[in-house]
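Note to self: keep these together.
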Amino acid sequence: MTFLWYIPNTVEPGHRLDDAVEGYGTLDHSVELARTAEEHGWSGALIGTGWGRPDTFTVATAIAARTTTFRPLAAIRPGYWQPAHFASAAATLDHLSGGRLLINIVSGQDNLAAYGDAEGDQAQRYARTKEFMRLVRRLWTSENVTFAGEYFHVTNSTVVPRTRGPRLYFGGASAAAERVAATEADVQLFWGEPLEGVADRIDRLRRLSKDLDRDLPPLEFGLRITTLVRDTTEEAWRDAFARVEAMASRSAKEQLRAPAVGQQRLLDLAARGEVLDSCLYTAPGRYGGGGAGTTWLVGSADDVAAALARYADLGITHFVLSDTPYKQETARVGDALIGRLREVVA
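Structure:
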């Protein structure tokens, strides 16, 4: 199993109610979070992307240079990157870091026009992503590549240094996204859905991989979710209720753009109940929680480890977890969960 944490990639403090202020947004602060992750059992951490935030790949490179085992899961977007440019940058960082780089391919909507890209419909976005991923892998493993696709082209292109390439993580719940994952991704990431929904999607993706003649090793699966862990179950739920109350009382609730399919699936969960499965808390999504902050696993370390083990039983082998305050919870959750979860699964 792979355990990854999350490092916020913003310049303004207060992300998801984080309390860090001094030094926030500096390299020293990000490196401190990464080293804390190293010290408390995490393989690395996801570093998010989006226009109007620091460049993710630059941040990942700087952190990798000042850590020893930390693996940055750097989120990137086709369109922001051209395939040959990205393949070269990723091969270089992977080589210089001793093979530590991981990549999260993001196809969701962003402020594309701000960096000179064009907004397309869902089918176009995922068709372009598929072509991007296929070409990048070819550039990593072949020399003198000439390719003319619908969205990208290269002529006599050879990436140096040579590499097998970092593993490609991918998200998306639409039919178009699942077809890309089934053929091109190494790891499909799911948001924090109930077990039944994750099981259905794993079964569907495995069938798709066969139907679409996947020519890569078998697709693996990961879970990206918030984990609110305390010494006791009662303390955890008390803190969870208080945090949601604080979110609800803010004068300006976060407004999400028209939600992607996966995000809408999470938002719809609240209609089924405030707590699903054993400890999946759906209320945060009503008050501005987005992405991994839409649903939380809440409880004692034993409660949350048991919940995560049930996802592992379905085939989840990659866990990308987080909670705030980031530095404190990097240590707390790492110490409390990773060893327990390995034992439970074993």
